[in-house]
Amino acid sequence: MILHFKNTSKTQLFLISVAAVLGAFIRWQIDNNIIVNIIGSFVIGLILGSNLNDKSRLIIGGAFCGSLTTFSGFFYFCFNKLINGFLIEGILLIIIQISISLCIACIGFLLGKKLHF
Fold first, then answer.
1. Which of 46, 48, 64, 110 is the most exposed place for a label (fewest CB within 10 A)?
2. Nearest residue to 93 (alpha-carbon basis) of 72, 104, 105, 77
3. What is the dihedral of CA 49, 53, 58, 63, to 10 degrees?
């Protein structure tokens, strides 16, 4: 089965693959949901604040950060707290993770704007 990607070159597919593998490798090395989500949030903010073109942003934000970060891991830990009776801890985990990630993304965004890359 051959997949066809509209307006996507072999080079872009290669870069997407390399970025995804690199993100997954780093994720596996760190093995901490909160840390990788914070790193991913910073990188996403940084590239959105940069002058990179849309394809580069998608490769870094979609492939690299998509493999690096983990919504499923985040959801697992939060939902596990909630269903096991730790309502306050589960809700606090959600609020803290999202708040920190938003703040870090904003810092990355501002840095990207300032660096002009």
1. 110
2. 77
3. -90
Handedness of CA 50, 53, 56, 57 (dihedral sign): positive
Q: What is the mean pLDDT of the chain?
A: 91
pLDDT for 8 beyond 90:
no
Selection from 63, 61, 67, 69 nearest residue 37 by Cα: 69
**Cβ(40)–Cβ(69) below 8 Å:** yes
pTM for the whole thing? 0.86
- How wide is the angle at C-alpha 52 spanned by C-alphas 50 and 55, nearest 5°? 140
User: Are 22 and 64 a contacting pair, CB within 8 Å?
Assistant: yes
